[in-house]
Design a protein that fits this description.
Rossmann fold; Arc Repressor Mutant, subunit A; five-stranded parallel sheet; four-stranded antiparallel sheet; 10 helices; 12 strands; about 40% helix; disordered N terminus; disordered C terminus
Length: about 250
């Protein structure tokens, strides 16, 4: 906790006015000291910060305001963080969500990602890492500067954060979109698990294999048609392969 307090004044964080101006962040955290540390630190770096100390209040605020990001603790009173996230996504809100977990347990992380979280941080964490993660989920991926990627009847545009299948828009989370882009860019070739994790979460982010599997299954559910061939195939022991063209028996 002390390291987080010291990091609030960390001199090496270099944010331009363009990065933080008018960025509205909602923090939902029930531990008063942690909430104040997060609020003060983000405020000092130019963010507009709102706070809530329980899940029900957080959900009300998240649906009532236009937000650039939501920093969400999992263990909340009245409504836990995962339930809040599912309700938020069910309402149609696609606000980027950074989940905070008390333990680096795979089940807890998978639960959050499966519910639609864009990223997660395990407590305790440094403030520079928090700011970096917020920058990552609120801005187009800096390395994605190419045009839309086409693989068969699937088109994904990483810059605009949009994807289509047979001309119909796909409602994908940020992580699902990054995964689809990583696979479609190398359609027809096996992409290793390590390479996919790096393209979605970043090379420095330690992610268990279960989190990638959950993300792949979630993307499959939105990409495939009933009775059709899976567009994302599993290459056992190696990774995944994207088949852009529909299977012979697949219907539109």
């Amino acid at each position: 906790m002390n390291s987080l307090l010291e990091a609030c004044h960390y001199p090496s964080i270099e944010l331009t006015l363009e990065m933080t101006e008018s960025m509205r962040i909602l923090i939902v955290e029930d531990e008063p000291r942690m909430l104040e540390l997060l609020r003060q630190g983000l405020y000092e770096h130019g963010f507009t910060v709102m706070t809530a100390a329980d899940g029900e209040t957080g959900l009300t605020m998240a649906t009532a305001h236009e937000l650039d990001a939501l920093v969400l603790d999992i263990g909340l009173p009245r409504l836990d963080g995962c339930s809040l996230l599912r309700a938020l996504r069910a309402s149609g809100r696609r606000t980027p969500v950074l989940m905070l977990t008390a333990r680096d347990t795979e089940d807890e992380i998978i639960h959050g990602l499966d519910g639609g979280a864009d990223d997660y941080l395990t407590k305790p964490f440094s403030f520079p890492e928090l700011v970096a993660r917020l920058q990552s989920i609120t801005r187009p991926h800096r390395e994605e500067t190419d045009s839309a990627i086409r693989a068969g009847d699937v088109v994904v545009d990483p810059v605009r954060r949009m994807a289509w299948r047979k001309g119909e828009s796909l409602n994908l989370t940020r992580l699902e979109l990054l995964l689809l882009a990583g696979l479609a860019r190398q359609a027809g070739r096996c992409v290793s698990r390590q390479e996919l994790i790096a393209s979605v979460w970043g090379a420095e982010h330690a992610v268990g294999p279960g989190a990638l599997d959950v993300l792949v299954n979630s993307l499959r559910s939105k990409l495939d048609t009933p009775g059709g061939r899976k567009r994302i195939g599993t290459v056992r022991g190696r990774g995944y392969i994207f088949r852009g063209a529909a299977g012979a028996g697949e219907k539109a």
